[in-house]
Fold this sequence. Notes:
heterodimer; A: mainly alpha; N-terminal domain of TfIIb; 3-stranded antiparallel sheet; 8 helices; elongated; B: alpha+beta; two-stranded antiparallel sheet; 35% helix; disordered N terminus
Amino acid sequence: MDNIYDNNAADQAGLDEQDELESSDDSGSEEEEEESWIECFCRSKGNEFYCEVDRDFIEDDFNLTGLQGEVQKYRKTLDVILDNNEDSEDNDDSDSSDTQENSDATVKLYGLIHARYILTTSGMREMKTKMELDMFGHCPRVGCRGQGLLPLGLANEWGRGSVVLFCGICEDIYMSPSRRHLNVDGAAFGPTFAHLFLLQYPEMRRGDWKESKFYKKFAAWNENKGK
Amino acid sequence: MDANKKQEQIEIDGTPKVLHQGHSPWIITFLRQPENDFFCLIDKEFLKDTFNQTDLRTTIPNFNRAMEEILNEKNSNDKKAEEQEINIASLEATAIEVYSMIHARYLLSAEGLSAMRSKYFDQIFGRCPRTLCDRQPLLPCGDSCTYGVSKVSLYCSRCNDVYRPTLKRHRHTDGAAFGPSFPHIFLVQYPDCVPFNKPV
């Protein structure tokens, strides 16, 4: 079993309680033209939990059903995400006051698409890679012995709360130690992902789960059910 | 007040403490280090009292030498120990062990509990990471009374569970410096620290 006190990638990314609150650079950076908006967003500080959604997934309108009503200027925002807006960079309509609103709308749209993407096979695979790299941290509970956490949102609607971290052993939710993650909306992950992930990859839950009090309670209840 | 005694005021445990000249530099250096945030300042009289050192003399090697280092007082009676050459690193480690063991005993006294209370309210020990505990302040506790068995963990009185410290620098503190009963004795002493709302 890994030593839970070892430095992990999450610690090295500077996830320390004393980190000052930094605003994440999430609006598409025009300086680096090679990086796409999605790449730039996922690599900026505070967005470590996000994975890069496949372009094919976003381009398929079926996957975006119902999202038209979530943001204003839907098409324009989608173009920003897919980097289709090179022609309209010098657009006179956009001014500086709009930029922050556009940025918030872009993050929101990307987050909602992301919530759907991580429920697919490829999305789960990417999140599994992240979990193996300890990007989500470890359960702080001593009894869980360093079980990897999974991001979870308590609601499907945007603006209801920030992302929390779910532990597969104690089945409890924890706040991220880094203050940067308070800005990440829970709806970008949704309440389903963590549980579906553990059904898909039961090996990611360390063997101690059967020793947990919840499993034992469930086993006892199951046994008494027939009587 | 003796005019010869220099008084230096420093902040330890969140409250200003007046130190007389000759107060041990070892203790001040030890408590100033950021990884020793959880420790509190032990009264000199408590450290010197042999009743509080029960069982430590026999179980910890080079105990006397370590006590001399901690108290900054040479014990001229013990000539045998003076003759032995001790590695500085191992002396430092022994001194930390001795301080930790006496610290665990000090925490059971009224002064120790009071010092920890001010740390508790300053949230030096951190807050519960569990979402539903609503940032309840934590209390340090150890898995065992024996030194070197386990590191310190933090107890949440709301969810009644123990967590490991968030900050890496706190993870090297030994659990025996607090003991398994400290949080419970603390809550008996200060019932106002017991949370009203139990977790969901």
